[in-house]
Each structure stands twice: as structure tokens, then as C-alpha cells.
Design a protein that fits this description.
alpha/beta, P-loop_NTPase, single chain, 58 helices, Sulfotransferase domain-containing protein, 25 strands, five-stranded mixed sheet, 8% strand, transmembrane, membrane, Carb_sulfotrans_8-10
């Protein structure tokens, strides 16, 4: 018998059976009235495990051959805690000797059936191979099977034969007389007594290495625990921008349970609440806030179910709220129901009874989702959906006395709703497949079936180590009160004809297979219970209940899981604006919508981006689209327009906030007559209260506007045109050229003097993707254009009537006096002339608008002729279209690694993009990436720089190179982001610094930054010395550079540059020969001890191409030389004045005190002598600089250099030969074709 029982369970299940039994009996023991044998077993739970063989006393056979069945009772006042699931023939003798009344036993069992019957039983447990086609994320793709019929080895097979012989004997014994039965029972009783004796002895002499499980030990004594009082919610980290709903959160533990508030991690459970399966009923009893009936007294906490299950269920998974902790959850508790009945209930529950109330409470998002199925297609019941949407023979129904044909689109929606591939209602969409594939593939599953809710709850409680029959016995009337029942459901909602039932079951086939898989994987359900549910399923969907495959493939729901379930570390649907700017700036609230009511993103073929051009009634339109505009609340116009536009318009583009998906189907512009728009923008941008504006908008915006409205005498558009544009003005007000330039910049959008003026039509037109489909809503024809746009996205024609109250003008500039809007004829003529390019862009947008007819376009052109007649008919302008590449980079923003194509000088709807090409450095060293500090921001539009102006910045270390580099836009130790004015920052496209040669060899200019060689060398020595914190230096720069510096600064006695000269260069120095060699090599740059030493003038000069055109900025004459470089590049002669604040020194070595900079006369002489070749390189750079006059070169060499190294300043030759740095150039500077030789600038002999 022992062998017979062991063969039925794998070792793991055998152990688990004992552990579950022992863990539960400590609390249960006092509540049970055991038979003598059962009582003995509960007080003597001994298990000996040696190797893979499990040996148990004979009495233990009962634990091995049964499964828990807490609902069975056996005699008055006596409960059998374990229900035997074998047949009468196998267990008759056991019941006789135990003196226990027999429960209802199976007539056959797996151990005494034929091979064919065994296979049939097995099919109830396991899906056949090949029946699963889940994706990689699908739990369904990893079928779970219990090894109930597996035997460990050939010995077990032999034991099985012995067991079969014993079965034969037992069958024969049933035909004997009562006397023979008594004799047999007596014999077995004697054997039983011997087994008890052996077991007792065995308990006191366990073999070495064995495991003993005792019933009186604490099962969680050494187990990690979870404090539920400080529970974390994974949903918050998966969706950081969303808030976990209150219904998915349990009340604080103190309100539900007495302390302590800890549970064993091995029992942590997550509730998987599939909709319309009594999940709310279960959830309420577990402590969640799911449509739970309120307590009679508000101060009294609502009641929850007793036992361990409410404690151990900590989180929930329901619809698009996945709050399970996959790292520590042991069990996933599914609540399920017959799939056909669930879908019937889901259809009726998801259908709104009061559409207006539903829209108010649930928002437009869910309103439009449901409307597409229930209202637009008119499916009143699930029977109606089946008849008109699924059954091809019936496609018409009577509606208001007329026959209406069901469209092909509605038929498609009907199919998609049942497959769960399109969202029309939460309980439809989030089906069994979604919830099942949403949990980990190796999840341990438990299940509560709606049809057996009390029985399954009890079984789950026992699985968790709790009390048997904790909710009572269902056969004795134990029930659970249901919550969230759809009381509005009529009898017609429940009706399904046979034909409809068949076609729905066929479409539900895949979901039915998932339902069956959940049942089979459930550790709290035995084979019999699974079979019961499948038998129940046969009454509704008989074919699918027994099928293992379906006619239609299982839907691929990977995207659905990503969008709804969410995963840690997944790419979220982020704001495109935040994506462009890498999270540097958050998206303002006014750019968002209420995503409880609206979609975050819809499919690309429906997505609409609203292009909100300033002062075109854009705020009015944005309010009607559902954006969170403060103007909507101020004007009490929070009503959102009906139709599809509010639902499909998910993002907005306004001013410097481009938050649109680049794959949107449409870009919907708000337009207005350009002249009228500019006048309104000017008046709107001019603050009435400057200090209030400064406090609210900040110093940066204040300075933008101050330049035009305060620093220049412009109080109206009329004044700006007369004073700043009209060249024939002869009034008594003097206008500077700067103010005239600002007036022109304000009109054409090249100068930022006000947000509404700066972000003009050209900016928005070029800011959207190339080739985008354009919709237009004209301010002058607001309702007509809204209706045509609604129709273009598939909505109702003429959705807004002439008496509509949705599009009420908001954000109107009420503080502008009427006279500020007036223009004389002469001023209008001049302003239209300067607005010519803007007018042509306006006309271009109208011409490409897909929702406007030719007649509507001509209507707008005729209206334009009234204000700007010449420009309305013109095809070109006298002034070329501005290049706004830099403006787009700075304001619109683009994803990392994307570049704009150079403009072609023509009006363009969208700009072409291309991937950012590899830098010259990355082409030379394909395995390396150019460091961030070597790059400029994309706003500089280096690809637009003319070839004859392209400049390489040669940054020699410790020459104020970081100061110059920051002022021209590189990211070099910059204390501020202030960029110098002029063309130099725009034309300096690349940089060469130390081993980072990132210049184009055909650059027009190479601008060196240089400094007195001796001063540079002193600064370099101190800067490269990491003596202040060696370990920090090693961590930041790595072992390689640590070793470089260690050889000079640590291994040699050189703490100052003066010591290096005295100890390493002087004839009386006491440094070792090796350190003396290193001192000399450090100064002439032939060995690497620090980057600023090693990469010297010789290196940088020989690295640039032979014959390069050189300009130079001397540290000692920074502003003077900057201005000369700017002028040579075509800029202003004195772009930086004496009081400029741009060139403030950056990356200064503040740790260098006077002691570190001090050099004795002897040390200076020794170092200058060793620096001779480097000084000659410095002089050569100066002499070759086209921006320095002969007087300036003499000033640096004769006057300044003579003070530090007079001999070398006069000399043209040195005692030591110029070092050969070929290898240094190849290994550090790098060349694209190293085998072709090196072309470099060398000094003349």
C-alpha cells in the first residue's frame, strides 16, 4: 500500500502535502475531534527523506494517497480533515481499520484503470503539446503540468507491479464473507500496531542528513516576513505619472486586523480580479474598496472574511491596474466564471443606461469607447450583437420603423469586442487571456470559481495554512453575499438563442482555453473540481469545452499588455516634449488632458495634434478639445465639444512646447489673417504691469520683452511701424539702429521680443513633420472648419450647429485700448510688406489643408486682399525667407541623434530630418564615442554653416580654453550657458582638445587659444597634480590616468613645479636618474604624465592639416583677439565691449596658491631652457595667425615673453632638437588612413 501511494505523487508534492498539513494543524488541532489513528498521526508527523526516496511509516499512507477536501463530513461531531480521492477497491481496507464511515468514493481511480482510461484522465490535467501559441510574455506559452503520473525510476515501476498484485487481492477480498473480512482486518490491525511501534522508534533515531518536520514547530519561525503596514505599490513605479485608484488599495492594516501587521513572504498573494466574476465580492471580503456595502456606523470598520486569506492578499490586478509585486508574490489568486456567462454579464454591465450621466462620471475617453459599439452600431443586447454582427444571415433590423443595414465596420467591431482586441468596454477588453498573460509565466495560481465560491475560498485558506471550512460548508447553506451586481439587467440581456450561443462560443474559443488552463494550473483545485467546471462549461459551449485548439489563432496582445498592464523599466508613453528634452523640463499642466477621460495616444491613423498658433482663437479651440487650459475655467467654458476631435486630439503644439507624436495622422492648425494676428500678438505680448510680469514670468522673459517695449519707444504697432520701419520718418524722436533691427526682428520672427510674435506661422509650419496632413480651423470661420475637421476624422457631419455654445472665445485681450489696434493706411502698407514671408506661409498652409475646399481657400484669400492686397496675390517676397534652424532646435526640440536638413530657401511644411552623422572623431575611432564636453547643442545648426566659414576651435589646455569654449557653445566646465553674440559661436562647429581631434580637415579656419608657455606649464603642472585626493582621482579617471600621474607626482619628489626644476633638472638635484628623465620628458611632452603637459603646443600645431588658416586668441588679450576673430569671420568689429560679462574665466584651478606658482630665478632659467622648442611652437602659431597684426605678435613675443624666458624669446633655435612625435600623433590625434603617411604642419628648419 505504501508503494502504491508513493507512486501517485512526485517527491515535491509528497513533501508539500506534509508541510501543508503540519503548518495548519497547530491552529486546527484543538478544534477537531480526530479518530484515534488520525489523532496519533497529527501528534507524530514524522518524515524521513534520504536521497530521492521518501520512506514513511505505514500509517502515513493516508497522507500520500489523499488530497485535501475540507468540506466533507463523516459522522456527527467528527470531521475527517483529509478526503480520500482513490476508489473503493483501493481504500476499503483502510476505512475498515480506521473505523471511519466511508465518504462517497470514486468507482475507479488512476491506479486501477486501463491505459486508455489513464490517458483520458491525464488529458483533463494537461493540455496537449502544440495547443499553445502564446507569445514570449505569455504565461499561456508555458503549460503547467503536475507530475501525478510520473514515476521516479525503474524500481517504482516494479513497485507498481507489486501494487497491482495487491489491488487484485483487495478486489478478491470484497467477495469473501464477513468472517473473512474481519480476519483480514484483524491481521492488518496487527501489522498496523507494529508500524506504530516502528515509527515511534524511528522518531528517536533519524539517519544522518535526514529532515524531520514536527507538528508543534512554528512554520514561519525562520521565514522572511513582510510588514503590510509599510506596503509598497508596484503600480506607482510602473506608471510614475499616474495614481493608483483607491479601489485597488486595501484599508490600513490597523483598520482591518489586530497587530502584528506582518505576513510570511512565502504566503504573499495578489488578487487577479477578472471583471464580472464576483471579483468585487471577493475583493471586499479581502479588504479592498471594491463597490463594498458601507457599514451601518461610519466609525465602525466594515467587516471582512475571517482567516489568513484577507491578511495574505496584499495587492490586486484588475483591468489596466497591475499592482502585483512579481519579485515577492507567491500566489496569484484568480477569480473566474464560466466564460460565456462572464461575457454576457460584461456586455450588459459595460453598456451605459444613461449616456449623459456616464459621460459626466467616467469622462469622454470611456464615453467614446463605448459609444462606438453600443450607440454607433446600436447593439442593444449580446443577442443583438450576435445576430447582426456575427451571423451573416441576418444583417438588418427594424429601427424607428425602418430597416437598417449593419455596416461592415460594426461587424468588425462585434468580432473585436469578443476577441478582446479592441477597447469598447473594460470588462470585454480585459479578458482571461489578458489577465493570464499579465501574470508571470511561472506564477503559482490559485482560483476561486464564482460557481463554487465558498468551497474554493475554503480550499485557498487551507493552502495558505489556515483553518478548514473557514466559511462553513456550502452544502449546509454557507454563501457569500454578492456585491456590484448589475440590477438594471433585464431578461432580454440574458437571452441567447442556440445559434447565437454557438457563434459567440466559437469566437470565445481562445478565451475558453485560457480559462481551462487557469483551472488546471490552480494548486487548490483537484482533478475532480477541474472536471466539474469543465462539465459545467459543456452546458454552454460544449464544443469549446472539450476542444484543445481553435479555428482562429490566439490574439497577439503584447502591445495591449505594454499599454495597459505595464512593466518595470518599459518604455512608457511619455510626453514627446519631455522625450525631446530628456526630462530637463516637465510638460506644463495646461498642455495636458484629463487622461481618465481621454486617451494618451490613439492609433497613428486617427491621432490629431493641435497646432495652436498664438492669437488665432487657439485657446477657444483647446478648451473645446478638452485641454487643461486655465482660460477655460476663467471664461466658464469648460464644456468639451461633442464628436471625435476631442478624443483623437491627444497632443498640442504651442510656442516652445512641441508635444506631438511625429506619426500623428493630422496636424490641425488654428489660423487667422496674418496682419490681424500680428497686431493682436503685439498688444498681447506688451505687459501692462512690468513688475507683476517679471514676478510671474521670470527674468528671462522679462528681458526678452524689455528690449522691444521698454528700451525702444514702441507702445503700439502704429508707433513701431512709424518709428522703426518707416525710413522716411522725420519726427522728433531719435531711433537707434538697434531698435530698428528689433522692430524688423519682431515682425519676421527672427528676434525674441514676445512669445506670440516670435512663434509665427513659419515656425509652426516648419516645426511639424515633413509631409504631414494638415487640417485648418480659421478664426473667421470657426464652426464651419470645426465641422469639416470632425468629418475628416470620421465624425458626424455638421456636429456643431449655428447655435452652438461650445466655441466661445476665451483668452481675449481685454486690456488693449481700441487705438492700439488701429493702423494708418501707410503703416498697414509697410507692415504688410515686412510680413510678406509670413503671409506666403499662411497661404501655403491654407493650400495644403485637406479639410478645406478650393472655394473656402479663395474665400480666405479674398479676405486677405482687404488688408494686404499686394502680398495676397504675390508669389514671392523681396526679402528671402529667414533660416530658422537654430530657432527650431532651441524651441521646438528634436529627439537625440536627429538633425534637420539645411533649409532650401523655400516655404516648407515640415523640415526633412536625418540621423546625426558620426563626428570626425568617431569616424577615426569607430569604437569610441565623442565626449559630451566636445559637443555643441544642436541649436547651433552646424550643418548650416557655410563651408568658407566653418571653424575648428583648437583648445590647448590651461590657456582659458574652457572660457572661450563655453562662450561659443561647447559644454566645457561652463559656469553659465551664456553664449557670446556674433557669428563666431555659430561658425565654430567642432573642437580639438588633447587626444580628441574632432575637426574636419577641410575647415576654413583653426582658431587656437594660447598663453605664455611658461605660465601655461606652471598651471598645467598644478592642475594635473592629484595629490589632494588620489583615491578620488582614481575613481573618476580610472587606473590608466592614475598610473600616468603616479609616476611623476607620487614616485618622484615633485610636489611643486619649483621642486621639479630643482630636483629633476638642476645638476645638484637629488632625484633619481629615472625621475630626472621623467622631469625632462614631462616638460617637452615626450612622455605622458598628465594631459595638459603631454598635449602641448607642438602636438596641437602638428596635428592640424598642413597649410591650415590659423587665427589665435591670446589669454592675455582675450577680448581684443575675440573681436578680431569675429571680424575676420564677417561679424561686427567690436562685438564684445570692455564691460562684457561673457568671457568670465571657467575651470580655474582654485587650489593653486602662491607657493605652487612660485619659481626661483634658477628654476625659471632651467625650465625655460627645457621649454625652448615649445616656445618656438608658440611663436610660430602667433606669426601664422591671420587675425593678429605684426605689432600684436611683437607685443606677445618681445614684450611679454621677454619677461619670463628672455633667451628663448629672442632665440630661433634650441639646444635640444625638436622631438619626433609621429607615434604620439598617430596614437592620440588619430588619422582615418594611418598607412598613407601623416600630413602635418612642421616648423621650418
Amino acid at each position: 500500500m505504501t508503494t502504491l501511494c508513493r507512486s501517485m505523487l512526485s517527491n515535491d508534492e509528497f513533501l508539500n502535502s506534509f508541510q501543508r498539513r503540519n503548518n495548519s494543524k497547530v491552529e486546527e488541532k484543538s478544534e477537531r475531534n480526530f479518530s484515534p489513528i488520525a489523532r496519533w498521526w497529527h501528534s507524530n508527523p514524522i518524515l524521513v527523506q534520504t536521497g530521492k526516496t521518501i520512506a514513511i511509516p505505514s500509517i502515513a499512507l493516508s497522507a500520500a494517497i489523499i488530497r485535501r477536501e475540507p468540506n466533507a463530513t463523516h459522522g456527527e461531531g467528527q470531521s475527517l480533515p483529509l478526503h480520500f480521492s482513490l476508489c473503493t477497491r483501493c481504500l476499503s481496507l483502510l476505512f475498515i481499520i480506521s473505523n471511519i464511515p466511508r465518504p462517497s468514493l470514486e468507482s475507479t481511480c488512476p491506479m486501477c484503470t486501463t491505459n486508455s482510461n489513464t490517458k483520458e484522465r491525464r488529458s483533463l490535467l494537461r493540455p496537449p503539446p502544440g495547443s499553445h501559441t502564446g507569445t514570449a510574455t505569455s504565461a499561456f506559452s508555458h503549460p503547467y503540468s503536475r507530475p501525478l503520473f510520473e514515476r521516479a525510476n525503474s524500481d517504482d515501476s516494479q513497485n507498481g507491479k507489486n501494487a497491482k498484485s495487491k489491488q487484485t487481492m483487495m478486489i478478491a477480498s470484497q467477495s469473501f464473507s464477513g468472517l473473512v473480512k474481519i480476519a483480514m482486518a484483524s491481521t492488518i490491525g496487527i501489522l498496523l500496531f507494529v508500524s506504530l511501534l516502528l515509527a515511534t522508534l524511528q522518531r528517536h533515531s533519524l539517519p544522518s542528513g535526514s529532515v524531520q518536520l514536527r507538528g508543534n514547530s512554528n512554520p514561519h519561525e525562520h521565514e522572511p516576513m513582510l510588514d503590510t503596514a509599510t506596503l509598497q505599490h508596484p503600480f506607482d513605479s510602473i506608471w510614475p505619472n499616474d495614481q493608483l485608484p483607491q479601489w485597488a488599495i486595501k484599508s490600513p492594516p490597523a483598520a482591518l486586523f489586530p497587530p502584528p501587521h506582518t505576513i510570511p513572504l512565502s504566503k504573499r498573494t495578489c488578487l487577479v480580479h477578472v471583471g464580472k466574476t464576483a471579483g468585487s465580492t471577493i475583493g471586499c471580503q479581502l479588504g479592498f474598496n471594491l463597490h463594498c456595502p458601507a457599514a451601518d456606523d461610519d466609525d465602525t470598520p466594515r467587516s471582512i472574511a475571517p482567516g489568513r486569506l484577507p491578511r495574505y492578499v496584499t495587492n490586486m490586478f484588475h483591468t489596466n491596474i497591475y499592482d502585483c509585486d512579481d519579485a515577492s508574490t507567491r500566489y496569484y489568486l484568480f477569480v473566474v466564471r464560466n466564460p460565456l456567462e462572464r461575457i454576457q454579464s460584461a456586455f450588459a454591465y459595460d453598456k451605459p443606461r444613461d449616456w449623459g450621466e456616464f459621460r459626466r462620471t467616467m469622462g469622454d475617453k470611456y464615453y467614446w469607447l463605448r459609444k462606438r459599439l453600443y450607440a454607433d452600431c446600436g447593439f442593444e443586447t449580446l443577442e443583438d450583437l450576435a445576430v447582426r454582427g456575427l451571423r451573416n444571415e441576418t444583417t438588418r433590423r427594424v429601427m424607428d420603423g425602418a430597416l437598417v443595414t449593419t455596416s461592415e465596420e460594426c461587424k468588425r467591431r462585434a468580432v473585436a469586442s469578443l476577441l478582446g482586441t479592441e477597447h469598447f468596454g473594460c470588462h470585454f477588453y480585459y479578458n482571461y487571456q489578458y489577465h493570464y498573460e499579465g501574470v508571470p509565466s511561472n506564477a503559482t495560481i490559485m482560483t476561486i470559481r464564482t460557481e463554487h465560491i465558498v468551497r474554493d475560498w475554503n480550499a485557498v485558506e487551507v493552502e495558505l495554512g489556515g483553518q478548514t471550512n473557514i466559511l462553513g460548508l456550502p452544502e449546509k447553506g454557507a454563501v457569500m453575499q454578492r456585491n456590484n451586481v448589475n440590477t438594471a439587467k433585464a431578461d432580454s440581456d440574458k437571452y441567447l438563442s442556440e445559434e447565437s450561443r454557438m457563434v459567440i462560443c466559437k469566437l470565445l474559443c481562445n478565451d475558453i482555453q485560457v480559462y481551462k488552463e487557469i483551472l488546471r494550473r490552480s494548486v487548490n483545485l483537484d482533478v475532480e473540481q477541474v472536471a466539474i467546471s469543465i462539465d459545467e462549461l459543456k452546458h454552454s459551449c460544449p464544443i469549446e469545452a472539450v476542444a484543445t485548439t481553435c479555428d482562429t489563432p490566439k490574439p497577439d496582445i503584447r502591445q495591449k499588455l505594454l499599454d495597459s498592464r505595464g512593466y518595470q523599466g518599459q518604455t512608457q508613453i511619455r510626453s514627446p516634449y519631455e522625450e525631446h528634452w530628456q526630462g530637463e523640463w516637465p510638460l506644463p499642466y495646461k498642455m495636458t488632458k484629463d487622461y481618465a477621460k481621454y486617451l494618451r495616444k490613439t492609433s497613428p491613423d486617427k491621432e490629431v495634434c493641435f497646432v495652436h498658433v498664438g492669437k488665432t482663437a487657439g485657446s477657444t479651440i483647446a478648451c473645446a478639445l478638452g485641454f487643461n487650459m486655465p482660460e477655460c475655467r476663467k471664461a466658464n467654458t469648460a464644456t468639451v465639444a461633442p464628436g471625435l476631435l476631442p478624443q483623437y486630439t491627444t497632443k498640442r503644439f504651442h510656442c516652445g512646447l512641441y508635444d506631438c507624436f511625429d506619426d500623428s495622422a493630422y496636424y490641425m492648425f488654428a489660423l487667422r489673417n496674418p496682419l490681424v494676428r500680428f497686431v493682436s500678438a503685439f498688444n498681447y505680448d506688451m505687459p501692462l504691469d512690468w513688475e507683476a510680469f517679471r514676478a510671474q514670468e521670470g527674468e528671462r522673459q522679462y528681458n526678452f520683452l524689455k528690449k522691444l517695449f521698454l528700451d525702444c519707444p514702441y507702445r503700439s504697432v502704429e508707433e513701431m511701424v512709424k518709428l522703426g520701419i518707416d525710413e522716411g520718418y522725420d519726427g522728433n524722436i531719435t531711433i537707434s539702429n538697434e531698435c530698428r533691427q528689433r522692430a524688423l526682428g519682431a515682425i519676421d520672427g527672427t528676434g525674441h521680443y514676445g512669445t506670440q510674435m516670435y512663434y509665427n506661422y513659419q515656425y509652426y509650419a516648419e516645426g511639424i513633420p515633413k509631409g504631414a496632413n494638415v487640417l485648418v480651423i480659421r478664426t473667421e470661420h470657426l464652426v464651419d472648419d470645426w465641422n469639416s475637421a470632425e468629418s475628416m476624422v470620421g465624425g458626424v457631419t455638421n456636429i456643431l450647429g449655428p447655435d452652438q455654445t461650445t466655441l466661445v472665445f476665451t483668452n481675449v485681450n481685454g486690456h488693449s485700448a481700441p487705438e492700439t489696434k488701429e493702423l494708418s493706411d501707410e503703416s498697414r502698407f509697410l507692415l504688410c510688406e515686412k510680413l510678406c514671408n509670413e503671409i506666403q506661409v499662411y497661404k501655403k498652409i491654407l493650400n495644403v489643408a485637406v479639410n478645406l475646399s478650393e472655394e473656402q481657400r479663395q474665400q480666405s484669400f479674398e479676405e486677405l486682399k482687404v488688408s494686404c492686397p499686394r502680398e495676397a496675390i504675390a508669389e514671392s517676397c523681396e526679402v528671402p525667407l529667414p533660416d530658422i534652424t537654430t530657432k527650431l532646435y532651441r524651441s521646438r526640440g528634436y529627439n537625440e541623434g536627429i538633425r534637420l536638413d539645411a533649409p532650401q530657401g523655400e516655404i516648407s511644411i515640415g523640415r526633412s530630418l536625418h540621423p546625426e552623422p558620426p563626428s570626425p572623431y568617431e569616424l577615426t575611432w569607430p569604437d569610441l564615442k565623442l565626449p559630451f564636453y566636445m559637443k555643441k547643442d544642436r541649436e547651433f545648426a552646424v550643418e548650416s554653416v557655410p563651408a568658407d566659414k566653418k571653424t575648428c576651435f583648437v583648445h590647448v589646455g590651461k590657456t582659458a580654453g574652457s572660457t572661450v569654449g563655453c562662450a561659443i557653445g561647447f559644454n566645457l566646465h561652463c559656469s553659465s550657458k551664456t553664449i557670446a553674440p556674433g557669428v563666431f559661436p555659430q561658425y565654430a562647429t567642432n573642437m580639438f582638445h588633447s587626444q580628441m581631434y574632432d575637426c574636419h580637415d577641410d575647415s576654413a579656419y583653426f582658431v587656437f587659444v594660447v598663453r605664455n608657455p611658461l605660465d601655461r606649464m606652471i598651471s598645467a603642472f598644478n592642475y594635473d597634480n592629484p595629490s589632494k585626493d588620489w583615491e578620488k582621482f582614481r575613481q573618476e579617471y580610472g587606473q590608466k590616468h592614475y598610473n600616468f600621474r603616479k609616476k611623476l607626482y607620487m614616485d618622484c619628489p615633485f610636489t611643486t613645479f619649483d621642486e621639479l626644476a630643482q630636483q629633476g633638472l638642476s645638476s645638484h638635484g637629488n632625484a633619481t636618474e629615472e625621475c630626472r628623465r621623467r622631469a625632462a620628458a614631462a616638460i617637452d611632452g615626450t612622455e605622458h604624465f598628465g594631459c595638459h603637459f603631454f598635449f602641448n603646443y607642438q602636438y596641437h600645431l602638428e596635428a592640424v592639416p598642413h597649410g591650415s588658416t590659423i587665427m589665435t586668441i591670446r589669454t592675455e588679450h582675450l577680448i581684443e583677439d575675440w573681436n578680431s576673430v569675429e571680424y575676420n569671420l564677417g561679424g561686427q568689429k567690436k562685438v564684445l565691449g570692455p564691460n562684457q560679462m561673457v568671457l568670465s574665466h571657467n575651470n580655474v584651478n582654485t587650489a593653486s596658491g602662491d607657493k605652487l606658482k612660485h619659481l626661483s630665478d634658477e628654476s625659471r632659467t632651467l625650465i625655460c631652457e627645457k621649454l625652448c622648442n615649445e616656445i618656438q611652437m608658440y611663436k610660430k602659431i602667433l606669426r601664422n595667425s591671420i587675425n593678429l597684426s605684426e605689432e600684436q605678435v611683437k607685443e606677445s613675443i618681445i614684450e611679454e615673453m621677454m619677461e619670463s624666458c628672455p633667451v628663448e624669446a629672442k632665440s630661433e633655435q634650441c639646444k635640444d632638437p625638436l622631438p619626433d612625435i609621429t607615434n604620439k600623433l598617430v596614437n592620440s590625434r588619430g588619422y582615418l588612413k594611418k598607412d598613407d603617411g601623416i600630413s602635418r604642419m612642421v616648423p621650418s628648419s
